[in-house]
Write a structure and sequence with these properties.
DNA polymerase, domain 1, mainly alpha, single chain, 58% helix, 301 residues
Length: 301
């Protein structure tokens, strides 16, 4: 199993070009699956059956994992078996019909326009790190980037003359995102001054660099957001700014397909979750504002 596992990890890193974060999750989940398989007395992957996978699903449920965690773990197993089939190491895929538990639909959290503005304007622009943080926050909000896309971005991907940025998303898919004047100005100011000071004698093409001059790690982005989210008294993580980007675009009348393209979603259904947010807000506004929206009892209370 170990030899096949090592080849699969190399395949993920080299051919699928997935992020280090995804590789780490997949490998962790697969190691848990292999441990379960060994505990059941199975020595080779060829002996794993549909029944084995059903037992593994029951095992995960007994351990009280969240449905989302179970779904992720099963997704890792299915991806692994698709690889085995692709490499013709197996004749049948026991994971092909394994169904993940139905997930509860949760609407994405997002910031108001006022909170988003206060958040991105929080950094101290007299300091190089503050200039970097302002550009980083502006870009997350203006372009709806994933944190992996942000930290892997290089300077040459920016075209500040046209306010366009080339982004490589999941599966190394390229897309072009647009940014507004405030984000472009913040990026330009950071590149001209703050980035140069942070780089020092280091030489690299990373857009966002740490105080030591190296590429900014994803975990530092979260620390930056935690620091500035105190200005709005809300806990903010990078994906909330992505949700905010999409919600504010739809609130402003953007077409759903355009938002899908800007987010880099392969499936429109991934983008449609945001329509539930905007429809819910529209309903609340209507019920609160329209004179005929409430019953007679409610109006006279």
């Amino acid at each position: 199993m170990q030899e096949v596992y090592n080849k699969y990890v190399a395949y993920l890193e080299a051919e699928r070009n997935v992020s280090a974060y995804t590789v780490r999750n997949y490998t962790s989940d697969l190691m848990e699956f292999f441990a379960f398989v060994r505990e059941t007395g199975i020595d080779t992957l060829k002996d794993v059956t549909k029944l084995t996978l059903r037992s593994y699903l029951a095992h995960l449920m007994e351990k009280s994992y969240a449905k989302s965690s179970i779904a992720r773990k099963l997704s890792a197993v299915r991806s692994f078996y698709r690889y085995l089939m692709r490499e013709e190491m197996l004749k049948a895929n026991p994971a092909a019909t394994t169904v993940s538990p139905r997930l509860d639909k949760r609407l994405p959290a997002f910031l108001t326009v006022e909170d988003a503005k206060r958040l991105v304007e929080s950094p101290d622009l007299t300091q190089p790190q503050g200039q970097r943080d302002r550009a980083l926050l502006e870009l997350l909000y203006a372009a709806g980037l994933r944190v992996s896309e942000l930290v892997n971005m290089n300077v040459e991907q920016l075209n500040l003359a046209t306010n366009e940025i080339r982004v490589w998303g999941k599966g190394a898919k390229e897309r072009v995102v647009l940014i507004g004047a405030p984000a472009a100005q913040a990026l330009n100011a950071y590149i001209e001054k703050g980035r140069r000071e942070l780089l020092g004698k280091n030489k690299n093409n990373a857009l966002f660099v740490s105080r030591y001059g190296g590429r900014l790690p994803a975990r530092t982005v979260q620390k930056i957001l935690t620091k500035y989210s105190r200005s709005i008294d809300k806990k903010v993580h990078p994906h909330i700014l992505r949700h905010t980007f999409a919600t504010h675009l739809l609130d402003g009348g953007a077409d759903l397909k355009v938002v899908q393209e800007l987010l880099g979603h392969a499936d429109l259904s991934s983008t449609q979750i945001y329509t539930h947010v905007t429809q819910g807000r529209a309903r609340k506004t209507y019920l609160a504002a329209h004179p005929m929206a409430q019953g007679e009892t409610e109006k006279h209370e």
